[in-house]
Amino acid sequence: MTVYITQEVRGRDLTDAIQFGDLQILVPAKEQIAYSTQPTVRRIAKGLQKFDDDDYLLLSGDPVIIGIALAYASIVNRGKVNVLKWDRLEAKYYPLHINFGKED
Predict the structure, then answer these.
(1) Residue 75: CB partners within 8 Å, gap ≥ 6?
(2) Burial of 72 by CB count in 10 Å (0-12 exposed, 13-18 middle, 19+ buried)?
(3) CA distance readout (Å), 65 to 16, 90, 101
C-alpha cells in the first residue's frame, strides 16, 4: 500500500497518513506548472504507473497537479481512485473511494 502525495507541501504533518501506506511524493514543492504541463504529466505518469486498489492519493498542492494525478490514477486503475480527506476537527485522514467508471 502506498500513499501518493500529489505535491509536497513543506511543513505539513503527514503522520496520520502513514497508517494507509508508505508515503511517496509525486511532485516536489518547488515545481511549478507554467507554460508546459508535459514534464509534470510525465513525472506523475511514472510515479503512478503501479497505482492500484490498495493505494491512495493524498491531494495537496497545485490544483492542476491534483487534477492530473486524479486523471492518471483513474486511467491506470480502471476508473477507481482512493483518496485521503483531511478532517481538521478530528485532525485525521478519512479514506474516500471514487469510481469514475461503471459500478461493480
Answers:
(1) none
(2) buried
(3) 22, 27, 22
pTM, to two decimals: 0.92
CA trace torsion 26, 44, 82, 85 (10° rounding): 50
d(CA 55, CA 48): 10
- pLDDT tens-digit series, residues 10-63: 988 899 999 999 999 999 998 888 778 899 999 999 999 999 999 999 999 999
Alpha-carbon distance of 100 to 76, in angstroms, equals 12
Helices (H), 4-83: 38-47, 63-76
pLDDT in tens, 50-98: 999 999 999 999 999 999 999 999 999 999 999 999 999 999 999 999 9
Strand partners, 85: 94
